[in-house]
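pasting input
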Amino acid sequence: MKIKRILIANRGEIAVRIIKTAHKMNIETVAVRSAVEPNAMFLSQADVVYDNTEDTSEIPVFLNIEKLIEIAVKTKSDAVHPGYGFLAENAYFAQKCIDNKIVFIGPSPDAIYKMGNKTVARKIAQAAGIPMAMGSEGNISDEEEAVSIAEKIGYPVIIKAASGGGGRGMRIVRKPEEMEKMFIIASKEAEKAFNDPSVFIEKYIENPKHIEFQILGDTKGNIIHLGERECSIQRKHQKLLEEAPSGALSEKLRKTMGRIAVQIASAVNYYSAGTVEFLLDSDKNFYFMEMNTRIQVEHPVTEIVTGIDLIEQQIRIAMGEALKYRQEDIKLKGWAIECRINAEDVQAGFAPDPGKIEKLHLPSDSWVRIDTGVQAGSAIVPSYDSMIAKLIVKGKDRKDALKNCKLALDKVWIKGTKTTLPFFRMLVRNPKFIDGDFTTAFIEKDLEKNYNSSEYEEMLAAWLATKLFIEENFTDKSINDDNEKGKEMSPWLLNKRINQF
Amino acid sequence: MPNSKPGIKKLYALSSENKRFCFPQPLKHSIRIGKREYEVKLKSDDKYGTYILWKNRKYPVEVVSSRQNRYEILFNDISYTFTVETPFSMQRKKVINAARGKTEKETLKAPMPGKIIDVLVREGSNVLRGEPLVILEAMKMQNEIQSPVNGQIIKVLAKPNSNVMKDDILVEIKVE
């Protein structure tokens, strides 16, 4: 069955990314214009734009199942691509699409449900004999039960949301005294984020690496893996930098983990692209964490080292095609690193810093790939995530990729919001990072500061402050209106004034 | 342009970490490193916005805020805060600081607009540096706002389920 027109139930860079592959395959795309960002870049690339700006509901359209189905029907879309986030892992949405004879570009509703519910996923993995951290049998009902289970498996433990993902609803507990507070926080957070307050407990693996395997399966029962991604550089349990492959895996370990990843996917008759996440401890023991039943933000690093377009594979599988790759066809070549350039204030603990992107220049070298959904003039709005662009660099090996990454980072020029650039510029010069000696605790434990600044840079900033002081205090009053002095004003206004001198 | 004041021969820019940078008055458009003077140019154009050109490299700059003699400068995506002092105001500041006791109050402000999910302390609570005080949700993340100091909470202004703007004061802490 051929797909002719895809409704993209998403926004931002992933919408742009899906459109790109759809066009390559001669498939039309439909994008949805919302009132929050009526001029978003992805809209200009779709063949059809559905105007939903009159919908003033507080819930984003990308979370509104009924509305999206209605749009798909109205625009005669024969398929829906959910991207990541929003409804990408919502089994009900996938089922609704099928019920309306619209192809859902993703796995079966059954696989989404089973892997999406972490306690169900744990049971399936356990039955399949997959190595896992010790934990509660199912959900836990109150802090007393939490304390008694934690006593059994030993502290530290981690409380996780049963319907969780994206790092929300997780709390580490090191002492019984902390349990009550953390249980309540985790449960509240889970309810707010996932409409489900249930949580479960697992033994907390100290200082692990986060290693995940990319899976591809078709509807004929073929499942393969496309190697691993190293995603240990995280803050608030959310990834900031990913690489493929991982320097921590020997060829033998890659084979073993890959085989187990395929085994987990097989247990739910998985098809489409998916990701099996593991924790790898310092003794190279690995534990199944969860399976994400969608395309991942960090999918480009796998695309670079395998040469396979994952969105294309998702679409082909959704059309009922058999995989044309067998496991032995998959050869990893070179090294890829992805930096997530987000609108965040590194100096304020990675707090989001929404705003308008005033200037944007991104490198265009042959060893750089940029996935972005913004351009100069776009706004990073508080209603969505803080992503500005993904900077993906390749090299023949890790050393080469790091060298290219350093060069590329210095070529990025963004004005209008603070960004994660100072963090990455520091990271690629950090000896432990360069040596591959890092775990998920790296940002919290191994870094004194999240950014680096040279003495000269600070001196130049001091020079500018001094220059402004002179201009505001020692010059002609006719230029320097006293009424303005001391008030907060827009940097852009100040800049205009600088230029007067 | 009379960009100088007679009688003041130098100015100091003091960083928030108390680093002191001294510049001659009138201000030179160059900075000496070792024996060499390097030219500093402040420029602006449509393509790049405002930037400083130094040693053949462009660095993006922004003046984030200016209040009296206090400047927050964004230089190469990192922000720095300086107070600029004349030799006279430096001296006066030293005298005042010596006279004043050491009781200090720290105000914790919202780093971004968002919604208060939870307040984890009350007035009178003793807190340690790094302890989470308030949970603020913004941009799909629950952010723990941590205490910057060891001290005692003297005032809690943040209310659960309320929306806050950037820089709204959340709690006040007496530094110990």
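fyi Chain A touches chain B through 66 residues (CB under 8 Å).
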